[in-house]
Structure formats: structure tokens, C-alpha cells
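PROTEIN FOLDING TASK:
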Amino acid sequence: PSVPRHTNRLINEKSPYLLQHAHNPVDWFPWSQEAFDKAKKENKLIFLSVGYSTCHWCHVMEEESFKNREIGEIMNKNFVCIKVDREERPDVDKVYMTFVQATSGGGGWPMSVWLTPDLKPFVGGTYFPPEDGVHRVGFRTVLLRIAEQWKENKDALLENSQKILEALLHRSEIRVRGQESPPPSKEVMATCFQQLSNSYDEDYGGFSESPKFPTPVNLNFLFTYWALHRTTPQGARALQMALHTLKMMAHGGIHDHVGQGFHRYSTDQHWHVPHFEKMLYDQGQLAAMYSRAFQISGDEFFADVAQDILLYVSRDLSDQAGGFYSAEDADSYPTTASGEKREGAFCVWEAEEIRALLPDPVEGATEGTTLGDVFMHHYGVKETGNVSPVKDPHQELKGKNVLIVRSSLELTAARFGLELGRLGALLWEGRRRLSAARAQRPRPHMDTKMLAAWNGLMISGFAQAGAALAKQEYVSRAVQAAAFLRRHLFDPTSGRLLRSCYRGKDNRVEQSAVPIQGFLEDYAFVIQALFDLYEASLEQGWLEWALQLQHMQDKLFWDPKGFAYFSSEAGDPSLLLRLKDDQDGAEPTANSVTVTNLLRAACYSGHTEWVEKAGQILAAFSERLQKIPITLPEMARATAVFHHTLKQVVICGDPQGEDTKEMLRCVHSVFSPNKMLILADGDSSAFLYRQLPFLASLARKDGKATAYLCSNFACSLPVTSPQELHGMLCS
């Protein structure tokens, strides 16, 4: 590579996204005191650009504007320019996104915001084309106009920015309004179910026409709704909606049939043509949902998909030290000789490529059939490409095919006169050969930063799959990742989590010069992961750490006046607002997850004040939960767990004994959202016996492994057979 013409301060950063901009002609600063001081000293406006490394339009805006020398000169002359990776600094992103959404009615990335020297926003938008077009004003024009405004009308701008800030403070406040009690769970659950049912796509699953997102939070809600209403028609519909959605997604092009794992979302109603980036948070949550679908239905199809996701993560998103990388990009070079990247280039196929790779005649099939014929039929491959031009505005996928399962195995087998087992083997061989061919293509960029929150979601995915599918290797992988968190994303002296760490030179794990402290979501998702990991591994050390982190979360983020937790801690002068997220989106919001965390923490520790806190979170979000619970399905689900009181399933037995293992297998085979597991091994000096004195009174009956169902520290009669335990868990 030639020596770069320009280098700015981002060259000293660790974030792959910031490093991508280190050679722009723009004099970028990271979000830092140095930048704020410069703006104040030179009395300049700040231009803030926020994005992330797998964001397609962020790449486009960089190519068109930030790499343009003239535009760079205008930016450097008139503004102090700051670049932020939203995955590193969700707090900064959230403050200014709240502003952009409030003032423009939309939002997204790249986010472009102009701030006064004291960081107050006054103009904002998302992507700007470089030059004026028929319908939009260009970035160059916007820059010049704003610079002019600052020269001419500085006082008016400052006054206006102050008013905007006050309005934002008022708009974004979430707090208890008078009433202190949580909303009625039955009504919240019923409304949320109704709202999801109304938006459900009967044919293809999912909860919108297009674009279509995986939304694991909706599926998690539906599974819980089913578990509490198993015998009603509504319960049956909830389960059908969740399972059908998971099946259609697995058949669709959003699922990478050759390289495993799931892409971010589908641009069409059929789950066919995706945006091709792959995010860690989707893999973690979907692995848990497919495992749960298997646990409930017993259908091996769902277990296979869960294993497919975990294979992808183990192979492609895993650091050798045990952590998980954040994401894989959508854009890549079609061949090693290509000059420009294309979306999906790594994943799509021309029909003739597939024919050339799979020319073998298939014995026993109808005359003249090749492996290519069978494969192309099953995966909807067309000679001219299977992507509709409507879904491909930039013609990047012309003549290409995104694999999608268009017919059942039975129909494909019948069409070619094959046995089912034989067809399965042929398709497997086809996928194997395509995978080998794909390995010769240039790979998409990998964002190798490792985030505490997303690692937490992935640990939950491995732990839940390990328990539900009875696969010890998944539990071991979760343990390895939790040990990584403890080593690299936790500060034992302060007891606090860190947000991020990075893959550095020689593949060593590195930390930035000033580590970013963990945010609320880091605590919520890591604590949830540690509870899931205890239930899968039964190692009490994870529980002990989870409870310590819960105390720290309370200390750093709890709002004693308005209830619930702030997303960021107090005391950062560069943050204008302390916000509380109010939407379960691609990831659940931290307050939603924390409700269940607090209830679990109380059951493992005996601290009942955590139950009270859980109720206070629900009270703070009460209005939203009663009117539009579809925006908070994970919190709506938690209202039911709160209302039904978590039950402790205590197994008294020797962890190595076959009878104990059989009882544990029984617990892991049943989905019961309002139960949690404790293994009482008789070691009275262990952490759990110290926390929960009542465990000492529970004995093994006739020397056999014995189960008790306990609630509020009172327990049922003992049972010693897995059949009786199964009945107890389903009741």
C-alpha cells in the first residue's frame, strides 16, 4: 500500500471504526477534552459524526465526503470535527440521537450533528450527499451555511440551543408519576400479545411487512406468554407465531446457508434479501431463541439452527483469548482484483458458478440430474439471478443469487426421486463445496472490538444452548468467555466493568489509554449471562460475581427519585443528559433485562429489597407498559415473572451422581419462565448455603437426589423421580 497522504489523531485510537477514518483529510478528533478545549479556545462550532464499522451509509458518506480534500478543508477551517463509534460510546450516541429524532422526525447512522462549543446541539441529520441534488441539499452547502450562521447570528444560535436542551430534558424524562405500584401484569401481557398478534405476518412470520427484523425480544415474550397460557387458544397462537417466524427466518436468505449465522435484517417481506452484516448481539439472542424453540417443541430442526449459529460464532467471531468480536461487515471486494467493495459480494452466487462447482451426476435420480440441479432447485437459484431489481437499487446484486429454501425437503426429494436421507447428504455436500469456494474470496472487514454487553448476550446464548441441548462444549465455551470478561473487562480494584477491549498487534488483547467505563447495558447483560451460566454450569463463583455487579449497578445508575436506572453514570460533564432507554429493539433495553435480573438476584441471595426495586422499575415505565407494551416486550414479559413470583427449583444431590444428573436434565428440558435452579450439594460452607440458610433444612430423601419447589423460602414436599419433577415444573 502507498504511504497515506493524511493522518489525523484517530490513528492513536483502538476502535476499528475510528481507525478506518485515520487517513481522511479531515482533522478528526476522538470524543475528548482536547477537542472540547479547542472548540472553546477558538470559539468554533463542533461537527460530530457518529457511526459504526458495519454501517453501509457510513462507508458511503466517508467515500463521498470525508475523503474529499475540498470538503475536508471546509470542515477543518470552520469546525472542530469529532468522530464517535456508537458501539464504544452509546451514551454520546443516545443524547444526540434523541435530539435528531426530536427535530427531524427520523434518525439513523451516520448521524451528523452540529454543536455549540459547550456541546449543545442545534442542527442535525443523518447521511448527506456531497453536493446539492434535486431533493436534498448537499453536505458542502450545509457546512458553508452553518459556518455563515455562526458568524452572523451567534447569540441567536446559542439561545436556541439552550431552549432545545430544556425541551429535550423535559421530553426524555421517565419517572414514577405519583402511583408507586407496578402495572397489572395480566392486562400488560394481554395487550402486548394483542398488539403483536395484530402486526404478525401470517404467511412469512415476523412483525412487519418489510424491512423485517429478527426481534428476539418479541419471540421471548411469546414463549413466556405461551408458558403461562398453555391450554388456551391465545397461548397456542403465541407459540405458533414464534415457531413459524423462527422457521421462516431459518429458511430465508437472512440465514447464511453456506457460512452459518444470521445477517442483520431482511429488506423484503420474505426474509430473502438481507443487509449482509452480521452482528454479535443477533447471534447471541437467536442462539437462545432457537434453543428455547427446541426445548418447547422437541423439533430437532431448531436445535440444528442453534448449533449452526454457535458454529459460526466459534469459528469466525471468537478471539483466541476467549472473547467475542462485535461484527462482520456487509461490503467486501468481489475478487482479489476488484477496486471497489460491493454489498453481499462474499455471500452471493451466479448460477453458472454453482453449476461448475456441482457438476456430478446424481445416481438414482431422474435421468441427467446433477448435484447442481438438485441444489439450485432447493435453494431457489435462477439462471438470471433471484434478486428482484426493486430490492437492489444500486444494481450490486444483478445476476446474483441469495440462497433461500423455497421448498420442503420432502418436495425436493419427490421432485428428483430421492430418499430424504440421501437428499440431506447431497445438500450438505453442496454447501461444503460452496463454502470451500467462498473461502477463496476476499473476506469482509471484521470489527474486532470486544464489548462487555454483547459478550454477555453471547455467553447467555452458549449457556442456554448448552443446557437445553445437553451439550457440555457450549457450556465450556460460555465459561471461557466469562473468564475472559473477568480478566479483560473488569477492574477488580474498583469492582467495575469496562465497556470495551480490542484485538491489537500480534493478536494480543489491548485496552485504550483511558479505558471506557461500563454502561448500564454492560452490567445488565453481563449479570444476566452470569445467572444463565450458573444454571448451566452450577459453578457458584459466577453467582457471587453477578451479585457483586448488581450492587455496583445499583450504586452507579439507580435513580432514587424517579426510579429505574439511568443508561450512563453521573459525573461526566461532557454528557448533557442522563437518559433511560424506553424501547426493546434489536437488543432489549437494560431496564427490561434488569427486572428479571433483580428477581433472580433476590432468589439467590435472600435480599428482598431487590424485588422491591424490580417493582419500582415497572412502576416507572407503567404508562408505556399499559398503552404500548409492544415497544417493551421484554419488560412486559418481566411483569409476568414479577407477578407470578420466581420459584426456586432446588435439587439436593451429589453433582457427580447419575440420579442428580438425571434430575438436572429434567429441569433443563422444560421451559418455565418463572423458575430458577439451585443445586444444593450439601457443602454448608459454600456461597449459596451462606446466602440462603433455608437450604440447610432440605434433605435427600432415602439417600436419592431430591427436588423441592420453593417460593418465598417455603418449600413443597420432596420428589425423587424425574417424572414427578417434570409434572411439577409444567404446573
Q: What stands out?
A: The mean pLDDT is 96. The longest helix spans residues 233-251. The chain has 27 helices and 21 strands. The CA atoms of residues 49 and 83 lie 5 Å apart.
